[in-house]
Amino acid sequence: MTWLDNVKKIKNDKKFTNETLSEKSGISIGTLNKLLAGATEDPKLSTLIPLSEALGCSIDVMLGRQEENSESNSIMDKYNALDDAGKESVRYILNKEYHRVRFSSPITVNDHVKVGKIVKLRLYDIGVSAGTGSYLFDSGYKTISLNSNRISENADFAVRVSGNSMNPKYENGDILLVAEKQPVAEGELGIFSVNGESYFKVFGTDRLISLNKDYRDIVFSENDDVRCFGKVIGKISS
User: In 3D, which of 198, 195, 193, 191 has the Cα closest to residue 133?
Assistant: First the structure.
């Protein structure tokens, strides 16, 4: 049984219509219809959490990864007993830990090398901050040559990591390959500018998130000038 079959079974067991589930979860009826039609193979955590809340089960049970048991019931009971502020705190921590674990195996440019082909990219002199921030395009750049593969061929430029807020997955001095025209979705890695300062972070919709727990999120305010330079699609370790 697939995770979608399992979701539909729980939904039917509870005699929920799509409209009822949409109302209970806060997920728009259009998004929910697409999800239940199988249009999304890998739903976001921000969708799974309210869906599991509405169905009254854990995410693992909802996705068919484990049978319902007293421990998972206890966790959900405790969560459901929280007020809105408490639930928001739990979701925030869960999302942050999910982002940290998700990038445990960064793809490197040595993957599937095409022998004999070379890709040349701009490597900017000033590194993007994994810390305090610096303006990326104020500096010059040099041209680097990389073996051609599916990652390097999709990159538009390269930048060097400066700082340690993306440790332990990305180290100071690592070279990042960036696809300028690829959109950065929530939970993905990108290169951003906030009020002229450039950062390498996880995109969190209303904030930029570090993988290093010692660093606070960079939360956007109403008047901030936030720009995205592209999606990080690979790295060269220092």
Answer: 198
Please give the CATH number for the structural domain made up of 114-236. 2.10.109.10
pLDDT tens per residue across span 170-198: 888 888 999 988 889 888 999 998 887 88
Domains 3-81 and 114-236 are alike in CATH topology? no
Sequence spans of domains, the chain: 3-81, 114-236
* Topology classification of domain 3-81: 434 Repressor (Amino-terminal Domain) (1.10.260)
Global confidence as pTM: 0.52
